[in-house]
TrEMBL record:
This is EamA family transporter RarD. It is a multi-pass membrane protein. PANTHER family: ACYL-MALONYL CONDENSING ENZYME-RELATED, SOLUTE CARRIER FAMILY 35 MEMBER G2-RELATED. The chain crosses the membrane at residues 12-34, 50-70, 82-99, 106-122, 128-145, 157-175, 195-214, 221-244, 250-269. Its main location: membrane. It comes from the Bacteria. The keyword Glycosyltransferase does not apply. Keywords: Cell membrane, Membrane, Transmembrane, Transmembrane helix, Transport. It is found in: Cell membrane. InterPro entries: EamA_dom, EmrE-like, RarD. It comes from Luteimonas deserti.
């Protein structure tokens, strides 16, 4: 994703996010209408509590998108990767606090190590890692709401995007009317417009996969594969975008990586024990 959004760095970040929301809503709504007819939306709106939960999740993910795209296009790719390194461990804390899931001693060690890493970055790197923490918290809360929202993954994504669709369209129309819009105006032989539209699909596919997963497994186990994404983002930030990664920042990341290793090893051991117990 950082490579993709970097292709659109000539478009203001807010407009990228607005287009992302609009085209994601259109693509998902079209797919649901083809599969289920027009009743998919009425089915959810008839349940006010569920509709309210999806409105909240829509606001959370829109805020997460906005911060992420702005950060990537303003030289903070490494810090965005930190946010997504923290997120799986934050899922563990939320699982304990809200879902009464229990942590093993190694998992507590992992959480403490990650917390030490964040504190180190805060006090030794010279600035509070607010981008990373906001990304981690917003996506963790999004996952929590989607876990409790009893709705099929694609249908939920379609509804939560429709809640932000109207404001996004109005904002884009205002930008275009003022002559500062990124659609039809910024050249590349029309490739800018194509990339803005395809950004909707790039948004929808990972969120659909995430929504399917978060309903089927405990939040304390959801995060292992999530480590791949931030690792790639970190490597891109350092080696492609040329962002600084000195010893102070490396030390903070080392604490977080140590926590992730402890958490991953404990998860593997617990999974092996369950398999052995089932076979016995």
């Amino acid at each position: 994703m950082p490579l993709y959004w970097n292709l659109l760095r000539h478009v203001p970040s807010l407009q990228i996010v607005l287009h992302r929301a609009v085209w994601c809503a259109i693509l998902v709504a079209a797919w649901l209408t083809l599969r289920q007819g027009r009743g998919w939306l009425r089915e959810i709106l008839a349940q006010p509590r569920l509709a309210g939960m999806l409105a909240m999740s829509g606001v959370l993910i829109a805020g997460n998108w906005s911060l992420y795209v702005w950060a990537v296009n303003n030289g903070h790719v490494v810090e965005t990767s930190l946010g997504y390194f923290i997120n799986p461990l934050l899922n563990v804390v939320i699982g304990v606090a809200f879902l009464r899931e229990r942590l093993s001693p190694p998992q507590w060690v992992a959480v403490v190590l990650a917390a030490c890493g964040v504190l180190w970055l805060t006090f030794n790197y010279g600035s509070f890692p607010w981008i990373a923490l906001c990304l981690a918290v917003s996506f963790a809360l999004y996952g929590l709401i989607r876990k409790f929202a009893a709705v099929e993954a694609v249908q939920g994504l379609g509804v939560e995007n429709l809640f932000v669709f109207g404001p996004a369209v109005l904002a884009l129309a205002w930008f275009e009317w003022r002559g500062g819009g990124g659609f039809f105006n910024l050249g590349w032989g029309g490739w800018t417009d194509v990339l803005l539209v395809l950004g909707g699909a790039l948004t929808a596919i990972p969120l659909i996969c995430f929504a399917y997963a978060v309903r089927r497994v405990p939040l304390t186990a959801i995060g292992l594969l999530q480590y791949i994404g931030p690792t790639l983002q970190l490597l891109l930030g350092v080696f492609f975008f040329g962002e600084a990664f000195g010893t102070d920042r490396a030390a903070g990341f080392a604490f977080i990586w140590a926590g992730l290793v402890v958490f991953a090893v404990d998860g593997y051991v617990q999974a092996r024990r369950r398999i052995v117990a089932q076979q016995a």
